[in-house]
Amino acid sequence: MNEEVSRPTRVALEIRKTLMEILHRDTKDPRLEKVNITECKISKDLSIATVYFTIIGVNEKDQPAQDAIKALEKAKGFFRSEIGKRMNLRITPEVRFFYDTVAENASHIEELIFKALHQKK
């Protein structure tokens, strides 16, 4: 099977990889130490990169997550600049950060299913 990955998908994967390198090697902000980039999606015209992140053991509403959001927003220009330097793109995409709630939602759904299955009839 010869499935070719689309250019936006390849660029999104490379941006995710690049951001992880930047976070782990080049940032000194302690609020970003435990941040993990879970996914990156990019618009078809490659102008906007939507980046999802999480911190293990932390919910979106917890203070460490809120601090990380503030730090990422403050440093988004730095991240964009570094992406531009490290990747050979005609246009460096705008970077938008969002806390990834998939794990939280999955945990909540599992809990609801467990309760429903073990409810006394």
Layout of strands and helices, then pairs:
Layout (H helix, E strand, L loop, with lengths): L6 H20 L8 E8 L5 E8 L7 H12 L1 H11 L7 E6 L2 H16 L4
Parallel strand pairs: 2-3
Antiparallel strand pairs: 1-2
Helix pairs in contact: 1-3
Subunit structure: Monomer. Binds 30S ribosomal subunits, but not 50S ribosomal subunits or 70S ribosomes.
InterPro entries: KH_dom-like_a/b, RbfA, RbfA_dom_sf, Ribosome-bd_factorA_CS
GO cellular component, one term: cytosol
List keywords for this structure.
121 residues, alpha+beta, GMP Synthetase, Chain A, domain 3, 3-stranded mixed sheet, 4 helices, 18% strand
Helical residue percent?
40-55%
CATH topological fold name: GMP Synthetase, Chain A, domain 3
Task: Determine the number of helices (DSSP H or I, runs of at least 4 residues).
Answer: 4
Order of helices and strands: HEEHHEH
Widest sheet: strand order?
A: 1-2-3
Structural class: alpha+beta
N-C termini distance: 50 Å
Explain this structure to me?
It is a single chain. By secondary structure, the chain is an alpha+beta fold. The chain has one domain: GMP Synthetase, Chain A, domain 3, CATH 3.30.300. Helix content is 49%, strand content 18%. It has helices at residues 7-26, 63-74, 76-86, 102-117; strands at 35-42, 48-55, 94-99. It has a 3-stranded mixed β-sheet. A hairpin with a 5-residue loop joins strand 1 and strand 2 (48-55). The N and C termini lie far apart (50 Å). The mean pLDDT is 88.
